Amino acid sequence: MSGFVGGDLLEVTCNHSALGNLRLQLKSNEDYEFHPGGYKANDDENGITGAGEPIDEMHRVRWFFGLPNVAHSLSSDELDKLAKLSAHPEPGIWTFGRIDGAIWSGKGRPVGDFSLNGNKGTINGVKISGGGVLTKI
């Protein structure tokens, strides 16, 4: 395998102690973004003293996976399950498997707005986010 591989997310799963398990099917060849979380430096051009010394502004950020169009099946009702996971006070354990074999894991929940595109049979705008950092397993 080459050193640089991009491509699909193959599998996204959630294990939740109260709501059970969820496995999401993703539409192929869709862009997605993720951030492993942790600390980052703020990009502020004005972060400098009068003497020219930098002022490093560091912040902790949550991890996230912005999922491409999630395929919706009436038999497994992903939309309802995502809504319940989002509303539950306890986060779930999520895993994200990439085509290059990398698997990331973190404790989190669906955040923000997501909606069903009934014509395409997909759920759009799904973002999973949590505290700490994603772990590569």
Task: Tell me about this structure.
With 137 residues, this protein is mainly beta. The protein contains one helix and 13 strands. The strands form three sheets. Strands 1, 2, 3, 6, 8, 9, 12 and 13 form an eight-stranded antiparallel beta sheet that branches. A three-stranded antiparallel beta sheet has the order 7-11-10, with no helix packed on it. Strands 4-5 form a two-stranded antiparallel sheet. The radius of gyration is 18 Å and the shape is elongated. The mean pLDDT is 91.
- The first-to-last residue Cα distance is 19 Å
- The average pLDDT is 91
The major pleated sheet works out as: 8 strands, antiparallel
Number of strands: 13
Broad shape:
elongated
- Count every helix, treating DSSP H or I runs of 4 or more residues as helices: 1
Strand content: 35-45%
Low-confidence stretches: none
Structural class: mainly beta
Based on CA atoms alone, the radius of gyration comes out at 18 Å
Pattern of helices and strands:
EEEEEEEHEEEEEE
The percentage helix is: under 10%
Oligomer class: single chain
Describe the structure concisely.
Helix content is 7%, strand content 42%. The chain has one helix and 13 strands, in the order E-E-E-E-E-E-E-H-E-E-E-E-E-E.
Observed structural traits:
137 residues, mainly beta, eight-stranded antiparallel beta sheet, three-stranded antiparallel beta sheet, elongated
What is the topology?
Blueprint: E1 9-16, E2 20-24, E3 33-35, E4 38-41, E5 58-61, E6 63-66, E7 70-71, H1 78-87, E8 92-98, E9 103-111, E10 115-117, E11 122-124, E12 127-130, E13 135-136
